Amino acid sequence: MTDFPTGLLFDDAMALLRDVASRHRLDVETLALSRCHGRVLAQDIDAPMALPPFDNSAMDGFAFRHADLRGSETRLRLAGEQFAGLAGAAIPAAGECVRVTTGAAMPAGTDTVVIKENCRVEATDVLVPDTAAGANVRSAGEDVRPGERVLHAGDVLTPARVSLAASLGIASLAVSRRPTVAVFTTGDELIEPGMPLAPGQIYDSNRDLLMGLLRADGLEPTAWPRLPDNPKQVEIALRDAGCAFDVIVTAGGVSAGEKDHLPGVLAQFGRAHFWKVRMKPGMPLLFGTLDQAQLLGLPGNPVSVLATYLTFGRALIDGLQGRREPRARCHAQLTAPLDKAHPRREFIRGRLSCGSNGVMHVEANPATGSHRLRAAADANALIVVPEGPQHYAAGSIVEVIPF
Length: 403
Ligand SMILES: Nc1nc2c(c(=O)[nH]1)N[C@H]1C(S)=C(S)[C@@H](COP(=O)(O)OP(=O)(O)OC[C@H]3O[C@@H](n4cnc5c(N)ncnc54)[C@H](O)[C@@H]3O)O[C@H]1N2
Ligand code: MOO
Description:
CATH architecture of the largest domain: 3-Layer(aba) Sandwich
Strand order of the largest sheet: 1-19-21-22-18-14-17
Helix content: 10-25%
Mean pLDDT: 96
Number of helices: 7
Number of domains: 4
Distance between the termini: 35 Å
CATH class of the largest domain: Alpha Beta
Strand content: 25-35%
Shape: elongated
CATH superfamily of the largest domain: MoaB/Mog-like domain
Radius of gyration: 30 Å
CATH topology of the largest domain: Molybdenum Cofactor Biosythetic Enzyme, Chain A
Largest sheet: 7 strands, mixed
Structural class: alpha/beta
Bound molecules: ligand LQZAQKY5, molybdate ion
């Protein structure tokens, strides 16, 4: 069963997973802009036009030729109005000005705008104060030049990026399909919340943890019925899902117990890429391919689910969609000393906060057991402690993964 790597360093396992994901990139679909939010862009976008498209006023006021100004106040004749949405409504001669609103195209020949609050209007004249040449004018192309590359394949479509595409008149974008995800929890001991517990049983908390994490990442996961510790039933359900989903995420049944059937089922009916990573929690993590699906077998302890999803789960989902932009890496100062003696990379629950001095602080939760879900509920970040023994003094800077 073990003709695949096992006991990998975190970075080596991550590289393997990213490589598999890059070889199973999801297909591309073209969607109306309103459906592109949060998707990964699958094309480069070169601007088909300039932004702003034309010189226009940044303020409500009066547009004029700067060369017409004389000293601290100049009397200009009001030649007409030019409001946003129109062009060529008024063509002023020398010594004239035009009333403009914000966004109005600059009337022909004008180059400067003064805000209306600083002017005095006397009948058909406007008394204009001394104003810097070019004031309050937004020039064509100052934000985007035509042909300039503004978005790249692999970018995540944030609201601002979708909005930028809209401002360029682009109505649809080629994006990666979102992976379909099947979620399985496994274990004879698991009971649905709300049902009575018999001795030895516990409530299934991993299902909601995983569904919530996946939904927070913009996916629409499908929760399959909970699996008993029965190898045949595990096999049938997983092989079924392997034909129908892009990703299978399971929780439990991947370590060394007599009832841990997942590694065997994957090795027999699919292909295991690795099993067991030198991380804490999450050590028995399993990754492989089963039919058309990539299967991530997360260890059953709830905090192991959290740590392995936030690292490997996200990397898999990002990789399948061709996301190139790395997730933001955060760092914070430890509020207290932190020691680690074991050789694995550790993910410690912590409380992240931003001080009034602008410095991020993180307080490690002393509860390290991977069953201690309460400590995860009290936390909002995982502190990443690298491989090998580590001693951090209070104030040391550590990497954190907010969640
Ligand atoms: N002899 C060994 N024993 C264990 C090893 C090992 O290497 N050798 N690894 C330990 C580590 S580390 C972890 S983590 C766990 C992972 O075990 P499994 O992935 O096989 O998970 P289970 O045994 O099924 O469950 C572990 C633990 O989590 C509870 N659990 C499982 N599913 C849920 C759920 N949906 N909701 C709430 N709680 C769940 C389960 O009852 C167990 O207590 O193995 C160690 N053992
Ligand atoms: O690796 Mo286990 O996930 O420490 O508890």
